[in-house]
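During the reporting period the student researcher (J.K.) took over the structure-prediction task from the postdoctoral fellow and processed the backlog of single-chain submissions. One of the processed entries is reproduced below for the supervisory committee.
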Amino acid sequence: MGMIMITIRRELGKDAAAREALLDLGYGAVRFSKVSHRLREGRLPAAGLAFVACDHGRLIGTVRLWDVAAGDSRPALLLGPLTVHPNHRHRGVGSALIRHALAAAARLGHRAVMLVGDAAYYERFGFTTEKTNSLWLPGRYDAHRFLTLELSPGALDGASGLVRATGRRLPVQAKPAPTVQSLPQAA
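J.K. obtained the following structure tokens:
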């Protein structure tokens, strides 16, 4: 495989179609049935926390973080979905996206991040199930895949209850005004 030159930057509005196509490629329609999708549905990503990886300008990876409340209304973030184009996997792109996103979240003062994912993959970034025993998600999920990372030690100490979405809602799309067809004028 050839050398890649990745750039990680904030996601832009113009990236939406390429991001959705990449997510479709990575997850397919099943992504809309995942419990974490319920926490993202109808919401905008957390301010300043949506990133893409590009190789020579072509979008090859994406990750976003979302505002949630951990049980007792404790602010936290939900990471996901993360995906990398199949031609660029196993080259460190996903790891670079996660490290970039976590560093940005810490700089912005966020204290904790949650996700539903492969523990063997995410433990290298510090995610564990240690603080999830008293928290639960809105739907079915494997408890061993519900992971947290404290960006500030103790941020989730004693947190218990349902994790719920708190982020900004997507703007409501205005419906176009009905059009009136002109009737032929009588002569």
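The committee noted the following: The longest helix spans residues 93-107.
J.K. will present the remaining backlog at the next meeting.
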